Amino acid sequence: MWLLPIGMVFSTVLDVHFVNKSLKYNDALLHAPVCFVLWQIFSLVCGAVVYEETQGFQDFQWAMAGAGVGCTLIGVIVSTTRPFPGSHR
Question: Is the whole model's pTM more than 0.85, yes or no?
Answer without folding.
Answer: no
